[in-house]
Design brief:
Elements (H helix, E strand, L loop, with lengths): L9 E5 L4 H12 L3 E5 L1 H4 L13 E4 L13 H6 L8 E4 L25 E4 L6 E5 L9 H16 L9 H21 L1
Parallel strand pairs: 1-2, 1-3, 3-4, 4-6
Antiparallel strand pairs: 5-6
Length: 187
Amino acid sequence: MSHRDRLPSRGFSSTSHCCTGGGAAWFASQCGVKAIEWDIAETSGGGPFPQLLDVDIVVNAIYLSSKIPPFLTLEMLQAAPSNARLSVLVDVSCDASNPNNPFPIYSQITTLFDPVLSVSAGAGKPTVDVVAIDHLPSLMPLESSEQFSHDILPHVLTLARPRDSAVWSRAEQLFQEKAQLAQAQAQ
């Protein structure tokens, strides 16, 4: 039986504390899918995580700020038994072009108009349908807005003293670098 011929029973959601990961787990439970929520504590030992092959759907919503071992690789899919359950990866983080991508089984993002990329690991091996829409959080505007506001407010409050803020200092430095580059290219 193909994964397309059965309903999912188990799902995995990374970053359960954020609006997207928590929202995915809530949605799964409303659909009768048992959600397995992982967060920093569960992934701190580093991947890969072969147990991801034992769930039907993986929703990745991690914030990637540094290099980490991959969670799932194409080699894992190629070595997976034919009864592996994983059939859908929803990569909310969309790190396809990031060299530290925790899911290097795909290398291009999908779009709202063409939302699914099927990744085949070879004959007789599981096919994983990847949804990696770069603007996926916009489909959850309230939760995304609340999370974004929560994350940016501390930095906005320091805007009056930009030299005292590491964030604004880095932003100014980046601006100056790009302005110089643009000016040099214009000449």
